[in-house]
Amino acid sequence: MLHFRPIVLSDKPAIDACLAGNTYRACDFCFTNFFAWQAKFKTTFAIEQETLFIRYADTAGELCYMLPVGKLTVEQSLPLVLHDARTNGIPFTLKGITERMLEKVNEAFPDLFIATHDRDNDEYIYLSEKLIQLTGKHLQSKRNHINRFRNDHPDWEYLPLDNQHIREECCTMLDLWEELNLSKAEQSLRYDYIATRIMLEQFEALGLRGGAIRASGKLAAFSIGEPLTPDTFVVHVEKAYADMNGAYAIINQQFALHEARPFLYINREEDMGLEHLRRAKQSYYPDLLLHEHILTLKEH
Fold it and tell me: Is 243 within 8 Å of 216 (Cβ atoms)?
């Protein structure tokens, strides 16, 4: 029997222990995302035999599960999830299932599930050196934007977020950024604000890495991320003033250079079906598009 409960910050060591052997490059398998996005997803967890089980509410408010991760195999862990769904009268749904996960599930339980591609949650993954060097014709516009920013703001500098005062400046910028953008976009930006604020306020406790760009006497952009797997770094947050030409481009490049260079890949997460985010992420030409699926039970 699984006993789910909300996640608190003190659960990080136990959850991280279950995630320690994770090699999936999916951004969902990360304590920061579980903890910071609880306001939106009402995430709860259980740990059984050193294996992490996640249950949450999707954007429609329907309860669903993630693939368990930890010591138990798929053959051992999925029956526990199925039992929890039946016991609580929850229509069984697994979300965030990548191709690798799907192979494991189908191998363990052939002909049991229907898989549906979930395009809005596909994740954009790039070679870190590409985001640092920005070489090639396709990325010429990014280099141009960065050069324009440097010419417009010759005093610009990159600042790591290991300084409390810089993080406080980021909070002030975040408040203004939300004021400028919330009325122009999806209401989901409100949850993005809450998650970002949590990451800034609990930056050290969450073990995050971050950087900001200061130009012309004020912060122009900041970004937050962390190691996800041995070869992949995940970017959780990227904020910049759109009216400062090149601000997004330079924080993207400088953050990759200063914080993610040791990693082969950078996961910039999904676009959530927002057209402006999709265009922005596609404009960097991802090296991998991590397809995600929704699994439901076949009718037998």
Answer: no
pLDDT tens column, 205-237: 999 999 999 999 999 999 999 999 999 999 999
Q: Cα torsion at 162, 164, 170, 174 (round to 10°)? A: 120
In total, the chain counts a number of residues equal to: 300
> Do 237 and 223 form a contact (C-beta atoms < 8 A)?
yes
DSSP lists the bridge partners of residue 48 as 51
Q: How many CB atoms lie within 10 A of CB 9?
A: 11
Mention every residue, 6+ apart, whose C-beta is less than 8 A from residue 218.
173
Q: CA–CA separation, 21 vs 16, rounded Å?
A: 9
Q: Supply the pLDDT for residue 190.
A: 84
φ/ψ (deg, to 5) at 194: -60, -45
The answer to whether the CB of 272 falls within 8 A of the CB of 121 is: yes
Q: Is the dihedral of CA 9, 125, 115, 61 positive or negative?
A: positive
